[in-house]
Amino acid sequence: MKHQLYIPFLCATAFLAFSCTNDKKQNPHFPGPPVGMVQGEDISFFGVELDDTPLPLTEVENEQIETSPSASNYMDYVENTQFNKQVEVTFSGNKATVAPSISGVSVNTIGADVSISSSATGVEYIVKGSTDNGSLSISSPSNVKISLSGCHVKNPDGSAISVTSAPYTYIVLASDDNYLEDGFVLKESKKNQDPDDDGAANYSIDDLKKQSKQQAKANASGVKKKKNSIKGTVLTEHNLVFSGRGKLHIECNSKSGIRADEEVEFRPGNVIHVKSHEGKGVSAKTGILVYGGVLNVDASNSSKRGISSKGVLAINGGRVCVLSSGGEKCEGIESKGVMLLNGGDICVAASDDAINSSEDLVVNGGRIYACSSANDGLDANGNLIINGGTVVVSGGRAPECGLDANEEDGYRLYIHGGRVIATGGNHTIPSEKSRQASIIYGGELDSTGCIGVASGEDHPLLTLNLKRNYGKMGGQVLFSSEQIIQGSPFTIVKGNAINQENTFFGLAITPDDSNFRLVEKTDVLKSQVTKIGTFPAPPSDGPMPPQ
User: Fold this and answer.
1) Separation CA 167–CA 142 (nearest Å)
2) Which of 298, 308, 389 shows the shortest CA–CA distance to 355?
3) Among 57-66, 228-237, 290-299, where is mean pLDDT lowest?
4) Helix, strand counts (H, E) of the chain
5) pLDDT, tens only, 232-260
6) What distance in Å separates the CA atoms of residue 413 and residue 398, rounded to the nearest whole number?
7) Distance (Å, rounded) from C-alpha 85 to C-alpha 125?
8) pTM for the full model?
């Protein structure tokens, strides 16, 4: 399955009233009560719920399976590898049975701990039964298929499922009642730092997969490993792909609920819920790709990130929801490489950045809700490019941002399309080379009603329920849509809160003309970016003013 998405490279400069903080170590407002939140509140205030309801089966039926062996993503599909041998692994309390016996498959069972070493090709392992003191580990130079068919596997001193050597591990969710939990965590040896990657302006899934494979080679050349040093509930040495129409619940007590030394991929149909008590929800060294399905990550009791890729990250569809409230450095979704948000519903509430990319962050479609209680909503250390979709963002109080691009190093915010409404103590000012106009309102913002932008004086275009109080310094709201164009006047309006049933995280689906009163009126828009209202001077070094 290929997705070609080309984004023109743009570069320019602009002025910010005062810049958003990019270096968390220099932010004087950590630790302590989250900036932008009243003490005692938590991220549950922002309405992100982890819904395990499956998406319609049309998601699976419409999936296009790559059939060309030369395609970079050909091996992402379990259908492209022939698995003509089956082995059943059945757990029962403190025992496990493995049958039938197959040539080339060596089995060692101690209690309910099953260790398999296989030289055979095309073997599918069907996992059933229940144990609170067992595990499954597989070593094979060939691709491995694991079908979870009603299993409850808890390992108090290691991974529940681990696979080594296999280039691809396919985990197929064949039933709705699968549960995996791990336990003890071993220390890891130090790893070499990821090599620099300048990224690119024109991105496609094919490009990202090439970057991912290059990253894997770099990791292999410099990583010093110890036996069993990398731990996770589900752990693979190379690529890991989830598929099927079943469900999986993961309880993570180690470094990661799902972890791969190369890519982790999620296909349409499955429902996966990761509850992390200590580590990350999902992590990969070279890339994370979500093609569909439901992925819920609850890292609200952890001090780590929800979803974390040391390489690229792309979300093409499905529903991805993340809670990450452990404090500083607890981003909801993070990538060290380029991040593409191409489709689906993405809902994130975090105490640090909701969504963060160390390179370019590109939004091409879907519906995105990104809320941070104490930092930026969308944060790119490269360019932040919005080409389409519905984007609702809530960042912390100043100096934090709703939308933040790395202006310090010459990168910019470009808005070329979509519906965008973002609140925060500040924003990166969109580039004048943006193809879609923006209005930024500065002033008092509280959680007693809604705010919007209207054409003329009585026709609201974008309206949002305000969910937080931005204090005495006030906040900023950025509005952008295809209906906001140069040559027309617009007004900022406020009104009573909108019925939540008619909103996407507070953004009205169909704004009500009768609910609003005029607050500020713009002249005819003469540029791509118009600022209206009041904007306080940059804060001096030292503690923030009382909120």
Assistant:
1) 7
2) 308
3) 228-237
4) 2, 45
5) 999 999 999 999 999 999 999 888 999 99
6) 18
7) 9
8) 0.85
